[in-house]
Amino acid sequence: MDGRPSSAVVGVSLCDSAPLLWRVEDLRTVRSQGLVGALLGSLPRTPRQNVRLGRPMLLLPEEERLLTERHAAAAAPGDQDGGGVELRLQVQQHREDQQRSYEEQSVLALEDRKSALLRAMTSSHTESGARAEDEALQGRLEALDRSFTLPSSALAVQLSTARAGLSYCPEARDFLRADRPIRGQDELSCHASRYQVFRDLRGRGFYLTSAGKFGGDFLVYPGDPLRFHAHFISVCLSLDESVCLLDVLAVSRLGSNVKKTVLLCSPGTDGRVLYTSLQWSGMV
Amino acid sequence: MSEASKRADVSEKPPNWILQHPAYQQMKSLELEDSAQVHAAFLVHMDLTEVRQWKEVSCVKSPELQVILLEGREKEGAPVQTVLPLPAHRSLSHRSIRHVLDRGFPMLLCAVASDSTLVYQRMTDGLVTPDPPAGPFQDLGRRQHRKRRQKH
Question: Which among A74, A217, A219, A221 could disulfide-bond with A207, CB atoms 3.0 to 4.6 Å apart, if both were Cys?
Answer without folding.
Answer: A221
